[in-house]
Design goal:
By secondary structure, the chain is an alpha/beta fold. The chain has helices at residues 7-22, 47-58, 80-92, 97-100, 120-131, 152-165, 192-203, 223-238, 264-272, and strands at residues 30-34, 37-44, 65-72, 103-107, 110-114, 116-117, 138-141, 144-145, 174-179, 182-191, 210-219, 246-251, 254-261, 282-289.
Length: 295
């Protein structure tokens, strides 16, 4: 029977996670743990950071419910026009062609995305890019999807085929259902990373309107493995390797890397990072190199 973690253990893991990613600037972020519910509050620089820390905390063993009440810092020197310019510039510089033509409008820090894309995955990526701009308080979307309506049976078949084709998803462990374009995934997979890959893979399928995950992970991060995971994720992120490209976690001191990068140099660089994290004594990598450039 799995041991129930104490509130103190979960609290210590979260505080260590915040220290790893934010250093001294994270001292103003507050944490409360009551049972399996975690509350976060305080002020943070960008909406992207708020979403990032919420996503990282949610994967900690012992956390089942998260109240992310972090507030994005206001900056009176950043106008709506400045925000719009920065968001559109980031879109135009993206490595994904479907993102480069998107636009937005901004009112009182609220960004509304505009344009046409083929998949929900592309819209999700656009939201992540926009959330990294200082001054953005909220993101809404009026993006239109080019895909015609797809019946549910076809959607299930497409998603299941996408799982089979993915080197990072075990299709046999996941059951897929669809209703009016909403995909529901159920089953038990090895790690939280596997859940994230499955959800993202489903969102990449044309015709999918939303994905609901009812997947469970056999193993969740805690203690030293969690600390090493966050250090590794931070090092990858500092050099431009986002979780969309490379996912990383540490289990029993072994670093597991998966994803897709643009070159052999990027792959070798990513695979060198575990050597720079104290405590990691082995590595298992399934990072692939894209067969062609996306842009």
């Amino acid at each position: 029977m799995q041991k129930i973690r104490s509130e103190k253990e979960v609290y210590q893991d979260i505080k260590q996670l915040i220290q790893t990613h934010f250093g001294e600037s994270g001292q103003g972020l507050h944490v409360e743990v009551k049972g399996d519910k975690v509350s976060l509050w305080g002020t943070i620089d960008t909406l992207g950071e708020k979403n990032f820390i919420g996503q990282r905390v949610s994967r900690i063993d012992g956390v089942k419910e998260l109240d992310n009440s972090l507030t994005v810092a206001g900056d009176g020197n950043i106008s709506d026009k400045d925000i719009e310019k920065q968001v559109t510039e980031r879109f135009s510089q993206a490595n994904y062609e479907d993102i480069t033509h998107l636009g937005c409008r901004v009112s009182q820090g609220i960004v509304t995305l505009l344009g046409h894309v083929e998949t929900q995955s592309t819209e999700r990526l656009a939201k992540r890019i926009a959330s990294q701009v200082r001054g953005v308080k909220e993101i809404r979307s009026e993006i239109q999807f080019l895909e015609n309506a797809v019946d549910d049976a076809t959607l299930v078949n497409r998603v299941e085929n996408a799982f089979v084709d993915s080197p990072w998803v075990d299709a046999q462990e996941i059951k897929t259902a669809a209703r009016n374009g909403l995909i529901t995934l159920t089953g038990m997979v090895d790690t939280q990373e596997a859940i994230e890959w499955a959800v993202e893979t489903a969102y990449q399928v044309p015709g999918v309107k939303a994905v609901m995950s009812e997947l469970f992970a056999r193993h969740r991060s805690q203690g030293e493995d969690l600390h090493m995971t966050e250090q590794l994720v931070r090092k990858l992120g500092q050099h431009g390797m986002t979780s969309r490209q490379v996912r990383a976690f540490v289990q029993d001191g072994i670093a597991y890397l998966s994803g897709e990068v643009y070159s052999d140099e990027d792959r070798r660089w990513a695979e060198s990072m575990p050597h720079h994290v104290s405590g990691i004594h082995g590595m298992n990598s399934s990072i692939k190199v894209a067969s062609h450039s996306i842009k």
